Amino acid sequence: MLLSVWAAAVLVVAVVIGLVVVWSGDGGEASATPATTTEPSATAEPTPAEVELAPTAPTPEPTGPTSEADALPPSLPAVGLDRPAAVGNGVTAVVPSLEAIDGKAQGPGNVAGPALRATVRISNDTDEPVSLDAVVVDLATGADLAPASPLDDPSESPFRGTVAPGETAEGVYVFTVPVDDRAAVTLSVGYQAGAPFLVFTGSAA
Q1: Distance CA 65, CA 147 (A)
Q2: Model-wide pTM > 0.70
Q3: Where residue 130 sits, what CATH number does that domain have?
Q4: Residue of 68 and 153 predicted with greater confidence
């Protein structure tokens, strides 16, 4: 009797195990482990070592005026103080007088004293009026052409306005020049911007 009961119990256990195996292999739903959702992490800032530097563009050369742009216009060959000088386009100039005066000071920065007063005459033999508003007159002394200081003397009368075709105009300029520096003087006249300077040289002693 005991043997039969034992055999029956063994049989029941075997049947149960078989059912469990069949159920697990034939589509029994296994308990799924919930998937862990990971929040996307923020992109880390690259370290300086990880950053690939972009090629550096060459520094552009500065633009603007060059030394040539700052250079003075050329000077024509010098002529004597009593000779006419020609630009070559119909404009000529002469120095009718270069006289010694006792310069009078007026205005700030002016000092009265020995001076030279130069009268310059410009002739217009072209077919068009010539503007005289940009005339430049300079005076230098000695072989090293030391610049003489302009003096705002009451007799000064710079060029202004225009000179018509076939006409002449005069301008008067005063420069401080000590008596001992008058053995060799050079007067330069530029009748307009960019034009070559007409140069007169000689003694004013």
Answers
A1: 26
A2: no
A3: 2.60.40.1240
A4: 153
